[in-house]
Specification:
single chain; alpha+beta; DNA Polymerase III, Chain A, domain 2; 3 domains; 26 strands; 20% helix; elongated
Length: 384
């Protein structure tokens, strides 16, 4: 192998590739970043045995070949070099990779090409073009509700499913919160299998990082993997589909449309600010913000042993029979932060039943949060 290439052309791809590979554990094959020359391209490949990344970049190739290098060390070195041309060559005598730039010369050990295992091909025949920004927005809106537990089966996954008429629902669930967003895209809906696709959260986060900076992508689905490709065809990214069965989320979403629903409408930003101040007074023992509900006012209170208490009152519009309800203050604040509407509506089903949150300027987006069981503990009382 021998080639020349500009650092500026490959550094972003190198950093994406290095972000996938394990740091210390795992086989040498997985810790390796693979360099493959073919025609006038240098391909950079990396995998953690699940995610696969390939980037192809224009190069002046003198001799074709395939080698593996210690991924993170190689990327750290290239990152610290100044911009300009790099020469990469395999020294047949020592078996090392020689990297040169002007008067700078480096030798790096290589992994045997026999260790390399072919990556999955991108299924071009079924590919659909899609906005990378829209995909990132979906991840942002539902990802915070996906369980962080790797052993949580289906609720540790992002779920996407076609529900008819080109409508696609995406959701995340962690046991006490649920987020659901929807969009209409006929081509993408036709691409999804009837039972939808499940992607584990740890892979979703890597996918979100890869999507950053891209405008449009191509999406394809195979029996076992979700495949993505940059609009210019230069980079591909694929990850495994999970085979779990997702819970029937309509069983609790449908509860939000009952006749006995209590409805509160408040200013979103004022509520977030107030909850932030109330969270100062919460503890591990009592993480709650208590909502006292009346027709034109919302009273928010919190108290913590050895800390003090807080009481804030906000203008609100309320219709319903529930007089008081409690939520973890930081969780409720986080949920409201994912909306853009000036005002949000909270739909209470019961004192300890699911609460749905929506906003006029956030169409097709709903978050459900479970209230906390209220206690009567009082640490501070107003003086007479």
């Amino acid at each position: 192998m021998k080639l020349t290439i500009m650092k500026e052309h490959i550094i972003e791809g190198l950093q994406k590739a290095a972000g996938i590979i394990p740091t210390r554990s795992g086989a040498a094959y997985l810790r390796s970043l693979w360099l493959k020359t073919e025609g006038d391209k240098l391909a950079i490949l990396s995998t953690d045995a699940n995610i696969e990344f390939t980037g192809q970049y224009a190069a002046s190739v003198v001799q074709e070949g395939l080698i593996g290098v210690q991924g993170r060390a190689f990327v750290d070195l290239v990152r610290q070099l100044p911009g300009g041309q790099l020469t990469l060559a395999l020294d047949d005598t020592s078996g090392n990779l020689l990297l040169e730039q002007g008067r700078r010369k480096y030798k790096l050990p290589v992994s045997d090409a026999a260790w390399f295992q072919a990556f999955s091909d991108f299924p071009s025949q079924n590919a659909v073009r899609w906005s990378a920004d829209v995909f990132q927005e979906i991840i942002e809106r539902v990802g915070f509700c996906i369980s962080d537990d790797d052993n949580a089966d289906a609720i540790g996954c992002l779920y996407m499913k076609s529900v008819g008429n080109g409508r696609i629902e995406s959701c995340g669930l962690n046991g006490h919160q649920f987020a659901l967003t929807a969009l209409t895209n006929d081509d993408l809906a036709a691409l999804l299998p009837p039972d939808g696709i499940l992607i584990q959260k740890k892979y979703v986060q890597e996918m979100k990082k890869w999507l950053g900076g891209l405008e449009e992508i191509e999406v394809s689905v195979s029996e076992k993997r979700l495949h993505l490709r940059a609009d210019d065809g230069r980079e591909t990214f694929s990850l495994p589909r999970s085979t779990y069965v997702y819970p029937d989320y309509m069983s609790f979403v449908s509860k939000l449309s009952g006749e006995s629903i209590s409805r509160l409408e408040v200013d979103r930003k004022e509520s977030i600010d107030a909850l932030g101040r109330l969270s100062v007074f919460t503890t591990d023992h009592d993480r709650c913000a208590y909502l006292d509900l009346s027709e034109n006012e919302l009273s928010l209170t919190a108290q913590g042993q050895d800390i003090g208490s807080a009481d804030e009152r906000l203008e609100a519009s309320y219709q319903g029979d529930i007089a008081k309800i409690a939520f973890p203050s930081r969780n409720l604040m986080e949920v409201l932060g994912h909306f853009t509407s000036a005002k949000v509506a909270l739909h209470f089903t019961a004192v300890e039943g699911p609460c749905g949150i929506s906003g006029k300027d956030d169409p097709d987006y709903t978050v459900i949060i479970m209230p906390m069981k209220m206690t009567d503990t009082t640490y501070y009382e107003e003086e007479a």
